[in-house]
Amino acid sequence: GEVAAPLPPESPTPVSVEAPPEAETLEAAQVESDARMPTEQEILGDYDRAVRIYGWFDLTPLEDSGETVTEDGTVYRRVSAAECGTMEELRLNLRSVFTESLTERLLSGEEGRIRYRDIDGALYVTGEGRERGSGRGSVTVEVEQTGETAYSVNVTVDLMEQEDGVVTGMECWSFPYVLENDRWGFSEFRLVY
User: Fold this and answer.
1) From CA 153, how far away is CA 183, in angstroms rounded?
2) Among 13, 31, 145, 177, which one has the highest count of C-beta atoms within 10 angstroms of its own C-beta?
3) How far is CA 187 from each of CA 6, 97, 156, rounded to the nearest angstrom?
4) pTM of the entire structure?
5) What confidence score (pLDDT) does residue 107 get?
């Protein structure tokens, strides 16, 4: 066992030119900026996007082409919406505003009324949308910092009499907005109407 195998010529020892030290500091700065504290505007923007994306699972399914497939006794319609043609795109949309666990709950169908499924690499949907809840008035959305890396988006909805539009009370919801794996997102969410 005295013979040492020579290093294959294809793998030369890297020289400093190939890996300048700046690359490392740039990467560290990049990570830092991803995890920086968001502004109130950014959080409110994420809330608006979260309402739209959560709506795909609760209020209005993504647009479909009418083409159907039956899997496990369930009829699925092929999604034709431009923003989401594949399960991967749907997951990326979800991960842009929700934590990993909430994303998984939505994709598995544990949460929401509308389900999506990957069939032969295409995205399909099953389930129907619903009407927006009636008896809801104006909505107030406020951001509150609850910890070093945690916020809460507090949403207040006026409840109204259908006939005369008199405000009879209010509902308050609080959605945690947290830092998880260097990304900000909501860990709990629902539509308030």
Assistant:
1) 16
2) 177
3) 53, 9, 19
4) 0.78
5) 97
Residue 73 burial (CB count, 10 A) = 5
pLDDT tens-digit series, residues 12-21:
444 444 444 4
Q: Which of 141, 24, 127 is nearest to 79 (CA)?
A: 127
Count of other CB atoms within 10 angstroms of residue 92 = 12
Q: First-to-last CA distance in the chain?
A: 75
Three-state secondary structure of 87-154: HHHHHHHHHCCECHHHHHHHHHCCCCCCEEEEECCEEEEECCCCCCCCCEEEEEEEEEEEECCEEEEE
> For residue 100, what are its two tokens?
């990993």
